[in-house]
From TrEMBL, chains A, B:
Originating gene: mgtE
Keywords: CBS domain, Cell membrane, Magnesium, Membrane, Metal-binding, Transmembrane, Transmembrane helix, Transport
The protein's name in its UniProt record: Magnesium transporter MgtE
Organism whose genome encodes this protein: Virgibacillus tibetensis
Domain CBS: 140-203, 204-262
Domain of life: Bacteria
Length: 452, 452
């Protein structure tokens, strides 16, 4: 295959080879493709050619390609393959990918899918499914190389060589004792530079950074990004080595967790992407919107409580959207700072106090500046010092309160081990809306005689 | 050092060894620590011990530790080290880390810092600084192993062994021809499984996934996460291999880009974290807030344009926050879906059209449901069918328009090669605020005689 071929040229060449029944040519092209590209090609060719495409692929190629497809397409491919071939593919698939495939299916479908599989593989996948979703146990793979601590470097290298096909990343070997307990780690670099007859236990690092099976995947991502590892071992409570998590899965998790934070912060609904159907997207977005609708009604009923004030000074309505909007926004700003800060920092009480005081100061500074600014604008616009003072002092107070609410609420949720990002739109917006309207109309009502 | 020691116990043991002048004991502990942990220990010990801490560390340990500190601390360490030792550390530092350190300094400080450094290293770092920030050229490292294509596998393994200390990740070797042009890649797996006397060019992959020096770092992250690589080669226009980007940097970039998206979407100001001073944080947050303040004034002046309508039917004010809030929120929802979708998808015109129609449908569905709901609420609350119809039909229209604005504006920015996330608060909020108030009061004014 020519190096210079574009993606479209490859698609055409593949279709050509399928049409003319040239399996050798097809294989020549496929051999140079990465799994992601194979999957893209499979999705790009017209569906009438897909059966033949799969027929011409080796089981290994189908397995690699599978891992780059989404669940629906994976099931589609398995169905096209028939029971015998699909069982082979399932046997070859990495157990964490298999676990994530069957996580979306119901019991009957799982039964059907796994019925013909190698029992050992089925047991491994089922044991993986026992861990909570989004924990280390759920995303770990069992394809890694471990060595007993009494091995020499030479023996370790031989074992590595033997299992090279199986291990995803070869940067580290994990060292275990007789009870399969994790006792150390050697890097491939150590093996290269060490003496062939040195014992592994003499060159290994014993202070291994590791994750427990129940550790949250976000914590695992934090460890990997801190330590710049390409894999991290996973242990059970008794320090028994049971799996490894690799950096490629971690990148997907970091992206997924960031998306979840954004979904929650923007109250945009769970897991909507470019391929989500409009009914599904609307269904996922509606709960937040309906909640916000009722919050809006609540704000409305607060305003209606001040109907007399508003009736007397209609100009008060002009500043309502500004005050509510500003308070909501400063709360969201603080919330975003806290939520994203927690992605890379752990917090102790001292830092929490420091952070709250920092935000209090931020609130005061922006409160003073924006309050003074709006005082002059309102004064000039409506030619009323009192109105300026009412609007300015309200904004000053609501900005401080909004900032603190956006800081303290996610911190409390974090302490209660609730994901702080759920504080998002609804909670912060409700509190800030209600408080800002109460403060604004409260102050205005106090000065009502001078506003008239 | 005992394996079971906690972080605090290690801190105490280190302080003890520093106080008693036991360098050997200090080194025993340090040798088992990862760079991140060394940095944490350095930051945890009281500052009066830090000079001695640095004195007891090897140059290599200081270099490793440096890379885990932030810029201020790095400069602090360099100052404590004195010119001779700090030059050694700078020589040893990876050039991408060095480039990111000096990116924050002014010309004079850079001059002073680099004055004593190895000229070759200085040249490399300065050439790195010529690339735009956030491009592949800026984040690549020159610590990687390349081999000429005429090498045998045995020669490749020997070279790998020789440079093992230098190469960060050993999973792939990049293969070049006589002009240093990138012609292929071999994995360490291929080397292990191949015959020692095979030529590298016979076993290498020729279809190498690579990044150009000018490629945006976000694109590089996309490539690495798609292909599950631990490193990716970087070339100049003539296909000359000039560097490598490793997965550990990519994880940091994915986190950084997600934070930037959240900063922009929540208009929360650039780069505020837990350690930012309150004056700085307030300064960074203020531009957005002041912009929003003027947007609020703009909304206010639109409302004041309908002063007569509002004076006649004060109840219209009750629904104002709800309509503006809902329209803003549906816009933000769509914006978040588009911005995060673009992180993992590329879009062609066909998909853009599909996405816009999807969102149009979503807007219609949520518009109908929320519109009907608010019709009944307004009707029951204020006992007026007309008010119900005015509020309901306004919400129906503004939800459709808000959804489309949140979709189309970021797509246009994306097509114009402007980061769609900047559409964030300001742009979408302004447009949605103004449109929603105009529609709401426009419809209300049309029915004003029946509303009285």
């Amino acid at each position: 295959m020519s190096l210079a071929m574009t993606e479209n040229e490859i698609t055409l060449a593949l279709i050509q080879s399928l049409k003319e029944g040239k399996k050798m040519l097809f294989q020549d092209i496929m051999e140079e493709l990465q799994p992601y590209d194979m999957a893209q090609q499979y999705l790009h060719i017209p569906s009438k050619h897909r059966n033949k495409f799969l027929l011409y692929c080796t089981i290994e190629q189908i397995t690699e390609m599978m891992q780059e497809l989404d669940t629906d397409e994976q099931l589609n491919v398995l169905q096209k393959l028939g029971i015998e071939k699909s069982t082979k593919v399932l046997d070859l698939m990495e157990n964490d990918d298999l676990a994530s495939l069957i996580a979306d299916l119901d019991a009957e479908e799982i039964e059907e899918l796994l019925s013909e599989m190698n029992q050992e593989e089925v047991d491994i996948v089922q044991s993986l499914m026992n861990y909570e979703p989004e924990t280390a146990g759920r995303i770990m793979t069992n394809r890694y190389v471990w060595i007993p601590k009494h091995y020499t470097i030479r023996e370790a290298v031989d074992k590595l060589k033997h299992f090279a096909e199986l291990a995803e990343y070869l940067n580290y070997l994990y060292v275990i004792d007789e009870q399969k307990k994790l006792v150390g780690v050697v890097s491939y670099k150590d093996l290269l530079l060490g003496d062939l007859y040195d014992k592994v236990e003499d060159v290994m690092y014993t202070r291994v950074v590791k994750a427990d099976v129940h550790t949250d995947q976000e914590e695992v991502a934090k460890l990997i990004s801190r330590y710049d590892f390409v894999s991290i071992p996973v242990i059970e409570a008794d320090n028994k080595l049971v799996g490894v998590i690799t950096v490629d899965d971690i990148i997907d998790i970091v992206i997924q967790e960031a998306n979840e934070d954004i979904e929650k912060l923007s109250a945009s609904g769970k897991a909507i992407d470019f391929n989500t159907k409009s009914m599904v997207a609307a269904y996922r977005r509606l709960p937040w919107l309906i909640l916000l609708l009722f919050i809006g009604i609540l704000s409305g009923s607060i305003i209606s409580g001040f109907e007399d004030t508003l009736q007397t000074v209609v100009a008060l309505a002009f500043f309502m959207p500004m005050i509510a909007g500003m308070t909501g926004n400063t709360g969201t700003q603080s919330l975003a700072v806290v939520v994203r800060g927690l992605v890379s920092h752990d917090l102790n009480s001292k830092q929490v106090v420091k952070l709250v005081f920092r935000e209090l100061w931020v609130g005061i500074i922006i409160g003073v500046i924006c309050g003074v600014l709006i005082f002059f604008i309102a004064y000039v616009w409506r030619d009323s010092v009192t109105l300026g003072l009412v609007v300015g002092s309200s904004l000053f107070l609501t900005l401080i309160i909004g900032t603190l609410a956006g800081t303290i609420i996610p911190l409390i949720l974090y302490r209660l081990k609730i994901d702080p990002a759920v504080a998002s739109g609804p909670l912060i917006t409700t509190i800030n809306d209600i408080l800002s309207l109460l403060i604004y109309f409260g102050i205005a009502t106090m000065f009502i005689s001078r506003l008239m």
